[in-house]
Amino acid sequence: MDQSNNLITVAAAIILNEKGELLLVRKRGTLFYMQVGGKLENGEAPNQALIREIKEEIGLEATIIKSYGDFYTQAANEKGFDLKAYLYHVKIDGQPKLCSEIEEIIWINPSATQYINIAPLTLDIVFPLVRRELS
């Protein structure tokens, strides 16, 4: 987290099931559903951070299929901060389970009308990206 620039840098996973639904998680004590992923540790490459975060958050090994690059939006849970997110399409091995700070896991149709709190990265960038990929 870069306090001086109010910028948080993360790696985030786009994980789809066979129905084209997107895996989202809600971390303990937060309101917004978002991609599995998290902040990079010192000296850690985004792809390495993502594989580590997937294991920590949903208990699974994963393979990166594609990098979409980096995107900027507002942070969901840190008021006044912006977010730089490295997005990757990821294949997971197995069924996700609650681990670490994850309180809830859902699969959601990225084309459906949503009635839950969705993080800005997911709503504004990931949903449109996934819809384009699936069309």
UniProtKB/TrEMBL annotation:
Q: Which CDD domains match?
A: NUDIX_Hydrolase
Recorded hits in InterPro entries, A to Z, give: NUDIX_hydrolase-like_dom_sf (IPR015797), NUDIX_hydrolase_CS (IPR020084), NUDIX_hydrolase_dom (IPR000086)
Q: Which cofactor does it need?
A: Mg(2+)
Query: Does the record's keyword annotation contain Lyase?
Result: no
Which Gene3D superfamilies does this UniProt record tie to the protein? Answer: Nucleoside Triphosphate Pyrophosphohydrolase
Keywords from the named record: Hydrolase
**Which Pfam families is this protein grouped with?**
NUDIX
Give all residue intervals belonging to the Nudix hydrolase domain: 6-131
The record ties this protein, via PANTHER family, to:
8-OXO-DGTP DIPHOSPHATASE-RELATED (PTHR43046:SF2), GDP-MANNOSE MANNOSYL HYDROLASE (PTHR43046)
Q: What is this protein called?
A: NUDIX domain-containing protein
Protein species of origin: Acinetobacter pollinis
Give the lineage. Answer: Bacteria, Pseudomonadati, Pseudomonadota, Gammaproteobacteria, Moraxellales
